[in-house]
Amino acid sequence: MHGDQDRVAPIKEVTPLIEKLKTQKGIMIEHAVIEGANHFFENRVEPLIEEVGAYLDKRLGNPPRVAVPSRRD
């Protein structure tokens, strides 16, 4: 998970590491970017939770979740 507004670990500096790791045998890397998120995902926690939940469901073999209304709904 990465915020596209991350100034602590800018995406342009992290991308080469991700690409290098993807080429290594036995390592599976999935990388998602949350638009508008900074390093701490301030004001973008809901999209972060959705992405992490979907990843865990996929990895654990759980069926897809139905959309859950955000706290603002």
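That was protein one. Protein two is written in the same sequence-then-structure order:
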Amino acid sequence: MTHHTDQDRVWTLIEDIGLCMLVTHDGSGDELRARPMSAHPSRDEDAIYFLTDARDHKDDEVAINDNVCLTFADNGGYRYVSVTGTANVMDDRRKVEELWSPAAKAFWDSKDDPSIRVLRVRPSMAEFWDSPGKIVTSVKMAVAAVTGGKPDLGTNRKVSL
């Protein structure tokens, strides 16, 4: 695989999986904190966006340390991506409207809620694990266990973004 193809694969996995754990440093900057978030990737803007709430602590944590990690997992397909990047929180009403979806109504009454913010992550590095799927992986592991060989469980690459 070429570097460009690896980058494309990372973006495709992010788009396909959609949900991730956003890992930030807590308010003291010493501990890590993770929470599930719905990602809105934009290859053209080289950014991954999230809707967040100003009343939560993510914006405070990002202000203290803007280094974040996003972990995407498709356990059923044995596909995983870890993205490292820098984050910032924006009060961008146009972007809120662009990212708004019916799912966001679970958290806010409308896209006009003044507490909605946009969290933007600019990815710098990613690592992905991409397998041929659960059935094929299971068969390969079983064959390896019987033969004593090492199974080929798919692709693992580190990618600069």
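The chain has one domain: 3-160. Keep this in mind for the problem set.
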